[in-house]
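Hey,
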Amino acid sequence: MHNELLAQSIQMGGYITIWKLLVFIIVFILWAWIGQWLNKDAKEVNTNRTFWNEIYLAIGTIGLVLWFMLPAGFLVGTLLFLVLWAMTTIIYILHRNVRVPENQTLLTMSHIKWLLSFEERKTKKKSQRLIFISVNNNELPRPYKDEKEYAGYVAAEALLHDMWRRRVSDTVLVPQGENYILRYIIDGIATDEGERSHEEAAECIDYLKKVAGLDVEDHRRPQAGSFFTIRTGEKDTGWRINTSGSTRGEQLRLERIEEKKAIKLSALGFNPDQLARLEETIKIADGVVLVTGPKNSGITTTIYSMIRHHDAFIQNIHSFEKECIMELDNVTQGLLKRGSEASSPARQLQSVLHTDPDVIMVGFCDGPDMAQICTKSARMGKKMYVCMDANSTFQALQEWIKMVTDHKKVAESLRAVINQRLVRILCDECREAYTPDVNMLKKLNLPADKIKQFYRPPSEIEYDKRGNPILCPRCQGTGYYGRTAVFETLFVSDALRKLLEENAPLNMITTQCRKERMLYLQEQALRAVIEGVTSIQEVLRATSK
């Protein structure tokens, strides 16, 4: 009796049949296989892998429960499960297609056409945006997906490609809590680019360390190295990597090595009046020229350009620097020796002067001894270019007089003091014009009746149908593209030299400079705003230091 009821229930339920069991097994295997693909793909395209895995698993579980619980029958349950499964997968594909290049999208017309073209699919290789060149100058092959370092390669390749695309000069990966903070520096401005999982960041750091020939197993000791990458159709790009350990994990600093060349003076940002007077000053055979500014204000580029303005075939030119920023043709570049056995910087500078150069570039001045040596050499017929940290020409002048200690020697030898800042250049493609506020113009001592418009970055962000921001293809939404310098220049005239000899107070010196139509740094920067080169916000940011 019981056996008959059991057989009848099995027949009525209809679930325990071979063909239904086979259908269930096949569908389940396909569902699990696509789930594995989604998990790996989410990591490759740098989206929230945990979120999509949870969504995929939840929808699959709900569909499976409904498949067996609905009284409508096996076929209806199967159809419902397939619909839920397909919707989840398609939504993810639409999401990931927005984050990848067009040639890596799925289920688009171009992708379907490629799938239907057997010959093209047979011969076409998967695109590789970057090729890694190790520190030993070996081209590294793209790892296979089943290899241990594949995840690190994907993360590193995505990071460097994004840095190249967005003109990032430096990147920092810093452990914070359970994740890593990614920070970009673009045109001198640091921006946070969100978080990366600890696993992804660690895999990326390990792969880059391997490429640079560093010890992958050592996560505590500071390490430094370099490597190259090649983009399709582009020249090599050099990268400098620095890693160091902390209590929270290993951190990374990645710097893009730019090919630096000595820029002509006319391309630095001097206005015509400044440039003409500076060229006259450079022609003077002796004297001191101070090139000043805060850290990262571009003074090294400026002083290199001044050195290149001299004829290295006629004059004997030397430099004394802490590090060689770029190589200068026909210039003997000397570096500061460090260590317990090295002599003082002043003595090392004196050794450079013993070679009897005509022109000397001093990349730093860290005390009275060096300042006095430079002044003495200038009074003996040498041309001295000296870098100093200072926020204005007058601060630099005061500090120089204090270090030299003899105001008459300063008056005799000093030719000019230059102070500078770097400002970002507005992007020509997306900058927008606006009418400046009259009260603001009055505060800045600008003629409100003559200035009709200023320029600024786009004030509003446009979005596409999917809600993604539409970024300017040139500047990638920053509103700026590149940098230029603005200068405050103090040229020592006969009247000013007399004041220096008399040890006149600073207010008398500034009054004389204003009589000679010297403009302060912010006033010079406002010229760039009026010409549409940069924005008023950028000038206030740069000159407030």
